[in-house]
Structure formats: C-alpha cells, structure tokens
Amino acid sequence: MESIIEVRNLTKVFNSRGRKITAVNDVSFDVNKGEIFSMIGPKGAGKSTIFAMMTTLIKPTSGSIKVAGFDAGNEDDRIRPIIGIVPQKLSLYPDLTAMENLELMGNLYDVPKKVMEERIGYYLKLVNLENHADRFTGGFSGGMKQRLSVISAVIHDPQIIFWDEPTTGLDPQTRQAIWKLARKFNTEGKTLIFTTHYMDEADKLCDRVAVMNTGKLMALDTPLNLKKTSNSASLEDVFIHLTGEEIRD
C-alpha cells in the first residue's frame, strides 16, 4: 500500500509549570492512501496531540511527519492546501448564512468562483441543506451545523480529511448520516483520519485502528485483526485489554 502520511519516532514534550510532560512518546506509523484510519485511546493518550501535529497546528519536539511527501514543521504551507480539518468544536460563523460560510472557506483557499459555486451546490445537496442555503447558521440544529462544518472543510477538495470526534453528541440518525458522508468521500479517493471514543464507529467505519495510551502506540491493525489478536468479541474489549481503562464519553 502507498503511504500518504509517514510518522517516524514522533515525540512531543510540553512544559507545564516547570515540569516536562511527554504527551507523545516515540510513536511511528503510516496512514495508507485512500483508507479510513482512526486513533482511539483514553483521555491523555496523546491522540489529539498527534492529530494537531499532523495538521501542522503544533510542531514535534523530535521525530518527523511527512504528509503527501511534505515535511510537517518545515513545509506547512505545502500541507495546508491539501488537507481539510473538521474540528470537534465547530467553527462556523453564526451571523453568516450557510452559503456565506462556504463561500468564505472557498475564498480562503482561493477556489475559483465558478468551481466554488458548483461545489457549494453539490455539497449542500449531498448533505440535504440545499433548502437552507440562505439561513443564518446560528439557528441551525446541531446535526445541521455538523454537516455544514464537514462540507466547509472539503470545499477546496483536499486529499486528506481530518475529523476530530466527528459524531460526539449527535443523535443516532445524524451519526449514520455522517458515516455515510465519510464513506462517500472515501469512495472519491480521499483519505480520512479520525479521532473517536465510539468503538462501534472505529469498528464499522475504519479500515485500520491505532490504539493509543499514555503517549504510546499500543497496537495498530484492522478492527478484525485487533479482536482476533486480543481474543476479544468487540473493539471495546480490545480497548480495555490494551489500556486497562473503561470507555468514557
């Protein structure tokens, strides 16, 4: 398989009140081009820190990350145009309409006007928001905001989509809609990377799962192989076996 992300001996140390805290400890893995990949682990496992380093938000203390061949930390300006980020805390502008939010994101990425208009129409229809294009997003439901946030992250047609806890707090119907959207993007050739604490999400949606704990990579494989190796009936059992912790929302 061709790798689109290569993480090598990645370490991140934070200074907090005179103490050094190792959030990520010598982690190495690859993400394959065109796969749906997830990182799971208890709070403080290091997955959010790795997520932030892969998306160029923070720099590693040591080690390296290559995204589509570009070096994170040194070639961030080459990486940012080819990735899309769907944050856990939605970053929509409530005083703008859905259309205006999408246009703003398209302009930030210098998407040509005609191309942007075509994509906005396509994506609004894809997430069933075409009849709400001229509504201010401050009045949207949580599910509507989540769907709009997702398509705003892909308006520039990125190769890789990063989703931080994509379905946290959503009702089952909206969760299924987000899963369907993720699979749709994946069939179009995009690579998806999740952080999630929903084991059924990692199990049913993802090609491979990385299990993190205390800053270290505990295991990385397909959900099926992780369950076989741990002699477990569910990915939740694998999680408990490897981390010694219960799942917490």
Average pLDDT works out at: 91
Share of residues in helices = 25-40%
Distance between the termini: 34 Å
Which sequence of strands runs across the widest sheet? 6-7-8-3-9-10
Q: In the CATH hierarchy, what is the superfamily?
A: P-loop containing nucleotide triphosphate hydrolases
Run of helices and strands: EEEHEEHEHHHEHEHEEHH
Give me the CATH architecture, please. Answer: 3-Layer(aba) Sandwich
DSSP strand content = 25-35%
What is the fold named in CATH at topology level? Rossmann fold
The unreliable regions are none
The total of helices stands at: 9
Look at the structure and give the CATH class.
Alpha Beta
Q: How many E-type strands?
A: 10
Q: How many strands, what sense, and barrel or not for the largest sheet?
A: 6 strands, mixed
- Assign an overall shape: globular
- Count of spatially separate domains: 1
By helix and strand content, what is the structural category? alpha/beta
Protein model, in words:
The chain is an alpha/beta fold. The chain has a single domain, classed as Rossmann fold. α3 packs across α4. It is globular and about 50 Å long.
Q: Quick gist of this model?
A:
By secondary structure, this protein is of the alpha/beta class. It contains nine helices and ten strands. The relative contact order is 0.17.
